[in-house]
Amino acid sequence: MNAAPAILARNNVRVTGSGPRTLVFAHGFGCDQNMWRFVSPAFETRYRTVLFDYVGSGKSELAAFDAARYATLDGYAQDLLDVCEALDLNQVVLVGHSVSAMIGVLAANRAPHRFSDLIMLVPSPRFINDPPGYVGGFEQADIEGLLSLMDLNYIGWAGTLAPMVMGDPSRPELAAELEESFCSTDPAAAKIFARATFFADNRSDLDAFRHPALMIQVRDDALVPATVVRYLQDQLPGSVTVTLDGSGHCPHMSQPAATIDAIEKYLGRVDAAV
Amino acid sequence: MPPSEIRPTPRQLAIESAPGGIISVDDSGRITFANREIHRLLDAAPESLVGAAFDRLLSPAARVFHSTHVFPLLKLRGRVDEIFVEFVKADGERVPTLVSATRTVMEGVGVNHWALLTMTQRKQLEAALVESKRTAEEATAAKDQFLAVISHELRSPLSAIQGWARIGMSDKIDEATRFRAFETIERNAALQARLIDDLLDISRIVSGKMRISPRTIDLGPIIEAAVDAAKPAAQARGIALQTAIDAVPLVIHADPDRIQQVAWNLLTNAIKFTPAGGWVRVLLKRDSSFLRLDVADSGKGIPAADLPFVFQRFWQSKEKAGPAAGLGLGLSICKTLVELHGGDIRAASGGPGGGSTFSVQLPLAVPMAKSLAWSGVTTASDDHPFGISLDGIDVLVVDDNQDAAALLKMLLEAAGASVRTASSYDEALAQLRASVPRLLVSDIGLQGRDGLELIRAVRAGEIPAARSIPAIAVTGMARPQDRVTMLRAGFQAHLTKPIEPSEVTALVQALAGSPRDDRPREGGPAG
Predict the structure, then answer these.
(1) How many residue pairs from chains A and B have C-beta atoms closer than 8 A?
(2) Cβ neighbours of residue B184 closer than 8 Å, sequence gap 6 or more
């Protein structure tokens, strides 16, 4: 497969760990695969783990960024499927954060054999309210506000992202890697990703979705109100929901232990059933 | 004094009261510390923030940005600098802030520490900078467009001149054609000359070098001349040109060439934008202490949204009147010229198809000219130099330069006036208080309080009897805006040094002829 090396470079794919099954970790909007560093290592002894950056994020190849392709979530779903194809992955467990949960739904609907289960971390099928029936938590103007905030803050973003060692003496092996920049994001690509994420409406894509799923929600999520959690539970009746205490939208970073625990419990059940 | 054990330490004082908010937040998003200042910035009740969710203090956009960008970075990198976010007060008001954050990890527990500075004023400054950048970009775009228009407008008559010159040189044409060639060349040369004049005027206006040479003139004949000049064009287009000019002398202190330029410009515009069968009306009349010139037409009118912009430089009607529509400078030049005369120009329109009216107001040199036997000015009085008599007119001359004051005194006395002098603001007011003369002539550049302050005090009623005394300002070289300032401050007229003797006596006579509200008239030209 000649295209494979190109895809692996394009999406900065990292494969580690070993085991009979594969976990693919897909990052959300705003950062890159570094987001998983507190969670994915916990699975490396028993699973093959795959991390990647969407084109336009992290250390992906910016030259491959195509504004038209990445203007909707379909383009990002294609990235995910490209990675699966390049590594010849089937029946993987996808762990998708935020928008990547819905990207996973799109990819699973398109190529069902690639995925066995979806683990959705703080998913939302639509962020913008759609009165009268749907409360997504945001108004269109809020998202326009986000875009202008990004404009203002990206002026100095490159400097903000300058390499810096966090200094964790207990884990010297991390230091070298940490010197690389985090979450580096091309401003133009980031705005296109923001629009694709926050103006998306994936509610109708849930109808065709038949895979078993775990939803990990946070009790007080800044981006996903309780109304959305209930909506998803109604739409995906076969799914399992775990709700973590606390607030925030990044439980894999703020509560990695609880997140690992929820994923392990779900996988244990799945493995036992296999 | 409180017991020493509860007195805050210097460190506590600094943390609680420094003019910036300090908040610590744990990884679950709960606030674990908030200083007194952040409660104040967000209008939160004292001690109410600890235990609350940090996210809820942020605007929705800032909440998303924090969740997707700032928190991950802080967690991975341990530090985030100079991020702009908006916090929200309890009443919903947004507080723009600049924040930086650091992260500490002790015994496995991570805490993020935020420092906030409000930037409400900075944001206003930023907004002003953005606005001025936008304005500058618009101005640059307008200039680019102007250059494009200019080259087109200058080239059109030039190509006509070149083409017809070639035809005119041919020996194969008859006399009628040759005559037509010369005629066309002359017409286009005149058009180009006018474009160049406009350009030079704009250049003078922009650099503040526009000068006018005002004299005391009767505006009626000048407007009539402009109307006569416009008649052929109106006839050629089938437009009725009507005039209504007050039969009495309409005397202003103005530059006749420049006022005629204004009238001509308004007239040619009106004719240009009026279709065949329409009319253009010129009205010149007295309107209290002003002269009013109206040029009205039944033409295509101006959309209400465009009215505020018609006097802006380079403004063009969207429906151009034809190939020779001009540079969009005429009205802006008119406005400047009228303002240099202490006047005012306005545009009104009934909207598209409803015609337009341009109204010019100019201050009358002699507020009650009707009651003045105007011929008195021009009737020679052989007893006096320049044939002007100032008999019975008393004048107060204010100048701190003794030689200048003496010169004026001599000139005016030679024409029959009686003259007092004052050398300062205070002395002038004292003289006016003692008795109010017929006329005030004041230098502007007095030591201490200047001539502008003097006339403002007079017009403000410092000495009630002198409130409406006619006044002439005298200065050295004056910029156009200085002239406007003088006229607005309350002077009726302005003389530039060195003084032209005939000009000063004529002006004094014209102005002194005006009666005053506050005391009975004592003879004078109108007797």
Answers:
(1) 129
(2) B160, B161, B164
The DSSP H or E segment spanning A158 is helix A157-160
Name the residue type at position B213: S
Which range marks the domain in which residue A222 is found? 4-273
The single-letter code of the amino acid at B84 is: F
Residue partners of B168: CB distance under 8 A and separation at least 6: B178, B181, B182, B185
Residues B526, B373 contacting (CB under 8 angstroms)? yes
Q: Which of A97, A221, A239, A252 is catalytic?
A: A221
CA distance linking residue B366 with residue B515, whole number of Å? 9
Tell me if the bond preceding A132 is cis, omega within 30° of 0: yes
Which CATH number fits the domain that encloses residue A128?
3.40.50.1820
Distance of CA A147 to CAs A81, A188, A248, Å?
28, 11, 20
Give yes or no for A199 touching B (CB within 8 A): no
Would the CA dihedral through B171, B176, B179, B183 be positive or negative? Answer: negative
CB B481 within 8 A of CB B208: yes
Q: d(Cα B307, Cα B303) in Å, to the nearest integer?
A: 7
CA angle at B187 for the pair B202 and B144, rounded to the nearest 5°: 35
* Three-state SS at B394: strand
CB atoms inside a 10 Å sphere around CB B512: 23
Instruction: Write the pLDDT tens digit of every residue in B36-71.
Output: 999 998 999 988 999 988 988 999 999 999 988 888
Determine how many CB atoms are found less than 10 A away from the CB of residue B195.
Answer: 19
> Does the annotation mark A27 as catalytic?
no
The interface predicted TM-score (ipTM) is 0.84
Q: B227 is written with which tokens? A: 């109307």
Verify whether the Cβ–Cβ distance B82 to A156 is below 8 Å.
Answer: yes
A248 touches chain B (CB under 8 A): yes
Q: What's the number of domains chain A is made of?
A: 1
Token couple for A55: 């084109």
> H-type helices in B172-218, by residue range?
175-206
**Of these residues, A60, A98, A124, A239, which one is catalytic?**
A98
Contact residues, chain B, for A31 at CB < 8 Å: 68-69, 72-73, 76
Q: Which residues pair with B416 in a beta bridge?
A: none
pLDDT digits (tens, 9 = 90+) for A172-207: 444 444 434 556 667 788 889 999 999 999 999 999
Degrees (nearest 5) of the Cα angle A208, A211, A216?
110
